[in-house]
Design a protein that fits this description.
Rossmann fold, 3 domains, single chain, globular, 8 strands
């Protein structure tokens, strides 16, 4: 089951479900329906049921989902008990903020080192995380068995490309552009203003836009 391929849009929502189920479990909630999940997470109930259907028979009609069982299932599926070591490249304002945020406290992700070309930053610690020069990158990656790198650098520094970073297989790149996300939000606000009677969800609108 852990190797099962699911749609990427579903994969992006699974951590959201997981975090909410953690909160429910903490307060002793025993079961929840897709309608309740929909109200809390603002995701269409049909979408929730479809997401879970990719993973198997996780709930029962008329009963909903067992919170403990679903939480444990998602924990295993998302490999929450396996710690992923991460390095951060680019210790500017955004990079520093990420280093100060304790991912390991609430996630299965641990930033083990930061990297920068600024000699004034090399050798310093930020909340216990040491900043190294770029010449130590391969060494630290090998030492800590690092699988993920976060790049918080200007796009022209990351790679001299006209649009997006490219990499050979099996490297996978996930783009998180805050400016683009903000522009998308503004587009939705202006083009599709909130309407309680609207039949389309934002997800459906986004699908049409793409």
């Amino acid at each position: 089951m852990s190797d099962q391929k699911i749609p990427q849009v579903t994969a992006k929502r699974l951590p959201l479900y997981y975090r909410y189920l953690e909160k429910l479990h903490a307060i002793g909630k025993q079961r929840i329906s897709s309608a309740d999940l929909s109200e809390a997470l603002q995701i269409d109930p049909a979408t929730i049921r479809r997401d879970f259907s990719y993973l198997g028979e996780l709930g029962k009609k008329g009963y909903g989902y067992n919170v403990t069982y679903l939480l444990q299932f998602l924990r295993d599926f998302l490999k929450q008990d396996e710690v992923t070591n991460v390095v951060l490249v680019g210790v500017g304002n955004l990079g520093t903020a990420l280093l100060r945020y304790n991912f390991y406290r609430s996630h299965n992700t641990k930033i083990v080192a930061g990297f920068d070309e600024d000699a004034a930053k090399i050798g310093k610690d930020i909340d216990g995380i040491t900043i190294f020069g770029m010449d130590r990158l391969s060494e630290i990656i090998s030492l800590h068995h690092v699988e993920v790198a976060i790049l918080t650098v200007p796009v022209n520094v990351a790679q001299t490309t006209p649009a997006r970073i490219t990499a050979p297989p099996p490297v996978r790149i996930h783009h998180i552009d805050l400016t683009s996300e903000l522009q998308t939000l503004i587009y939705f606000l202006k083009k599709y203003p909130a309407d309680e009677d609207a039949e389309e969800s934002l997800e459906e609108v986004a699908n049409k836009r793409s």
